[in-house]
Amino acid sequence: MRTKASPAAEAFEDLADRYEAWYDTTPGRVLFDLELAALRPLLAGTARPRLEVGVGSGRFAAALGIEVGLDPAEAPLRLAKARGVRVVRGAGEQLPFGDNTFGAVALVVTLCFAENPAGVLTEVSRVLGAGGRLVVGLVPLDSAWGRSYEEKGREGHPFYRHARFQTLVEYRRMLATAGFRLVEARSTLFQAPGDGPVVEPVRGGAVAGAGFVALAVQREEAGAC
Ligand SMILES: C[S@@+](CC[C@H](N)C(=O)[O-])C[C@H]1O[C@@H](n2cnc3c(N)ncnc32)[C@H](O)[C@@H]1O
């Protein structure tokens, strides 16, 4: 028996075509390339197989060489499958994979849509192999983009009204509480929403004010000093 989909998952199910079409607009293409440029070096060289939790239509997974994608919404999964991603329907809070299965896991703008983001991190920690890496793509609330998306959500935006954005410090605290330590980070989108968008450089580190931050973290292994 399948558990009931969350309102967020239902929105991505019902509006998969709209979400997908946005990536083909000029702003969509620019933002996708910037976010990809932040994420790519953090996944480079990680062990396989790789998993994306909240894979959506699979654009990032396909571009980042991630073989397996999980999502609770079926319609985007069909698009991900057409991109060559091996897809599995399910929720991040209850991953249908064994312990220590993956060399790397990605979560790209998904924690904010999960009903229990801490539960997702617990499950990701379980399925990651020893020395495996989690790469998280975030839109921090304490950025012009986070504030803009939150405002749109309050006004009833079909996707953002289901999101709970958090500040960069809150995301980092949640990762630390789940037993992950930061190993590398990249930041981009320092321009304000409505400024183009324009191509800009990606900076090293988790930089305050960035509209998109990619964090690479690893599990604190027991006994490590
Ligand atoms: C903003 S989309 C991101 C999709 C893809 N990562 C991308 O960046 O294009 C968020 C995705 O999270 C999925 N999602 C919502 N709740 C989830 C959960 N509990 N576990 C895993 N994925 C979830 C949604 O169905 C949606 O596909």
Which features does this protein show?
single chain; 225 residues; alpha/beta; Rossmann fold; eight-stranded mixed beta sheet; 36% helix; binds S-adenosylmethionine
Secondary-structure topology with pairs:
Elements lengths: L6 H8 L1 H7 L3 H18 L6 E4 L5 H6 L3 E4 L2 H9 L3 E4 L12 E7 L8 H11 E11 L5 H11 L13 H10 L2 E9 L14 E2 L7 E8 L6
Parallel strand pairs: 1-2, 1-4, 2-3, 4-5
Antiparallel strand pairs: 5-8, 6-7, 6-8
The protein binds S-adenosylmethionine.
Briefly characterize the structure:
The chain is α/β, with parallel strands linked by helices and 225 residues long. It has helices at 7-14, 16-22, 26-43, 59-64, 74-82, 117-127, 144-154, 168-177; strands at residues 50-53, 68-71, 86-89, 102-108, 128-138, 180-188, 203-204, 212-219. The chain has 8 helices and 8 strands, in the order αααβαβαββαβααβββ.
Folded structure, characterized:
The radius of gyration is 16 Å and the shape is globular. The longest helix has 18 residues, at about 25-45. It is built from 8 helices and 8 strands; from the N terminus they run αααβαβαββαβααβββ. The chain has about 220 residues and is α/β, with parallel strands linked by helices. The chain has helices at about 5-15, 15-20, 25-45, 60-65, 75-80, 115-125, 145-155, 170-175; strands spanning about 50-55, 70, 85-90, 100-110, 130-140, 180-190, 205, 210-220. An 8-stranded mixed β-sheet has the order 3-2-1-4-5-8-6-7, sandwiched between helices. About 45% of the residues are buried. It has a single domain (about 5-220), classed as Vaccinia Virus protein VP39 (Rossmann fold, 3-Layer(aba) Sandwich). Bound molecules: S-adenosylmethionine. S-adenosylmethionine (SAM) binds near residues 6, 8 and 108.
